[in-house]
Amino acid sequence: MIGTFFWRRLHSLSGIIPIGVFLAEHMFINSLALKGKSSFNQGVALLHSIPYLFAVELVVIFLPLLFHAFYGLWLVYLTKNNVLPYTYFRNWLFYLQRVTALITLLFVGWHVWVLRFSSGLTAGNAFSVVAHALHSPAVMVLYIIGLLATFGHFTNGLWSFLVTWGITVGERAQRVAAYVCIVVFLVFTVVGLNALGAFI
Question: Which CATH class is domain 4-198?
Fold first, then answer.
């Protein structure tokens, strides 16, 4: 029988591959908006030209995302938070990983519903649909919060992945990995916020 060890490792891996890889690709496509409406629409058109697109999205994105989300919710439910008596930095990051998980889940669910399934977005009108969605200041604020939570959750999860899978062994390696993850967070934040600004 497959045990908790396997599922936790698979959960950790799924957050990096394929979800983290997709996040980076998604930010790259969104950044095409910095080059103008036609560049962004061409990038979306390229994605829409993938054969069997829905099957690819289902296997590579949606199923891993659903597994990561629902198993993650189970872990959040099981977690006993003790940040008040134990105020260590890493303990706070452990707690924030759970908080950002919930924010990210709500944000991604809303984002996918609005811009993938209910907006009528096509390769030809992609820029206009996204720009219209971000026209409201309240929506823009929610997007900023959602992006920061998503990037924080991913990069903190990346650090945990490196430790969990035995890639960073020892205090020095884990400290270096923490700095690298901070840089990754900052890069994602700059790229993500610049892409948002390009639509307005």
Answer: mainly alpha
Residue 40 exposed, middle or buried by CB count within 10 Å (0-12, 13-18, 19+): buried
CA 129 centroid distance within chain: 21
Dihedral pair phi/psi, residue 111, rounded to 5°: -60, -45
Place of tokens 């198993």: 71
pTM of the model: 0.92
Helix (H) or strand (E) holding 74: helix 63-78
The domains of the chain are located at 4-198
Residue 84 to residue 91: CA distance in whole angstroms: 10
* Residue 14 burial (10 A CB sphere; 0-12, 13-18, 19+): buried
Q: What is the DSSP letter of 167?
A: S
Do residues 162 and 136 make contact, with C-beta atoms less than 8 angstroms apart? no
pLDDT digits 0-9 by tens, 164-191: 999 999 999 999 999 999 999 999 999 9
**DSSP code for 50:** S
Specify the amino acid at residue 174.
Q
